[in-house]
Design goal:
CATH class of the largest domain: Alpha Beta
Number of domains: 3
Strand content: 5-15%
Largest sheet: 7 strands, parallel
Order of helices and strands: HHHEHEHHEHEHEHEHEHHHH
CATH superfamily of the largest domain: P-loop containing nucleotide triphosphate hydrolases
CATH architecture of the largest domain: 3-Layer(aba) Sandwich
Number of helices: 14
Strand order of the largest sheet: 3-2-4-1-5-6-7
Low-confidence stretches: 91-99
Helix content: 40-55%
Distance between the termini: 42 Å
Bound molecules: guanosine-5'-triphosphate, magnesium ion
Length: 298
């Protein structure tokens, strides 16, 4: 394929080049998937060998710094790691968030680590389906671990992390952080909880609070670890906890409920006629019941 630019390759060619180690083909393939290109999404469908971890939690608790630590840890073991940063503000250029690149300072320069941002605000079809395809593409390109970092603690984030095998909830030492995550229902999905900024006062206290919260919900078996991405403490223990996560049948049901709900919701909202339906509702031209019927008929 020497001499042929990635721009002119078909998705099948891109997929086989990406599998053979071409980063340029992988980048192009991811961009096409991001744009909702059906052939590209199909070219990677069904590939799933990588272990995926969703990393979520309130803003500013240190998710990116911790993702950086985890990616570097696995890379130091010789594993290839893909990192997807979900970015609601990013235009669909395929560029990576500058800020996250900077915070992922260890990973940015490591050949075994591939970082990519994922735009959410596009009109190109379902985010959960595109995300699944991007995970498959990274897996096809030989990534053994894929970390998906989300931005906050809302329904979208739940939809995103429910797509991964394992969920790491990152919290901070402030009470407000924990309350946010609890309210969002994220604690219910978490396989491991890390209270980051363990170098600051209040982290142990916060961990104790989360443990008693989990015990109330009969989830005391979920590990709650105090870590510091800044001082790189507790990372080995966190890796071990993540690698030891067992499948919980009750959580699988919750996970599939979120997967299906968010995939359906996304499909409906990204339909080209959704906005005009909203406008018709606002102008009083149709009733809510009529709107629902119109959507389901489509
Ligand atoms: N003291 C301390 N600060 C930390 C630690 N980890 C991250 N920070 C700082 O917390 C701030 C936010 O870190 P990020 O990794 O960007 O947090 P985030 O959760 O990814 O933030 P968003 O993606 O914006 O939600 C940065 O200024 C970090 O330097 C830590 O372990 N201890
Ligand atoms: Mg971040």
């Amino acid at each position: 394929m020497v001499g042929i630019g990635v721009e002119s390759m078909t998705s099948t060619e891109l997929a086989s080049q990406a599998a053979a180690g071409s980063r340029r083909s992988l980048a192009r393939l991811l961009s096409l998937i991001q744009e909702g290109d059906t052939a590209s999404i199909e070219s990677v469908s069904g590939v799933e060998n990588a272990a995926t971890i969703g990393i979520t939690g309130p803003p500013g608790v240190g998710k990116s710094c911790l993702t950086d630590c985890l990616a570097s840890y696995w890379a130091s073991q010789g594993q290839r790691v893909g990192v997807l940063c979900i970015d609601p503000s990013s235009p669909i250029t395929g560029g990576s968030l500058l800020g996250d690149r900077m915070r992922m300072e260890q990973s940015g320069s490591n050949d075994l680590i591939y970082i990519r941002s994922v735009a959410t605000r596009t009109s190109f079809g379902s985010l959960p389906l595109r995300l699944m395809a991007m995970i498959s593409a990274l897996s096809l390109a030989g990534m053994e671990r894929i970390l998906v970092e989300t931005v906050g603690v809302g329904q979208t984030e739940i939809g995103i992390v429910s797509m991964t095998d394992t969920v790491l909830l990152v919290d901070g030492p402030d009470r407000g952080d924990i309350v946010q995550a609890e309210k969002a229902g994220l604690l219910e999905l978490a396989d491991v909880v890390a209270v980051n900024k363990g170098d600051l006062d209040g982290a142990e206290n916060a961990a104790a609070n989360i443990r008693s919260g989990l015990a109330l919900g009969n989830s005391e078996s979920i590990p709650v670890l105090v870590v510091s991405a800044l001082e790189k403490t507790g990372i080995d223990e966190l890796v071990q906890a993540l690698e030891e996560v067992q499948l919980r049948p009750s959580v699988e049901v919750v996970r599939w409920r979120h997967r299906l709900t968010s995939a359906i919701l996304d499909q409906v909202v990204s339909d080209s006629s959704f906005d005009s339906t909203v406008t018709s509702l606002a102008e009083g031209k149709i009733t809510l019941e009529q709107a629902i019927n119109m959507i389901f008929q489509r």
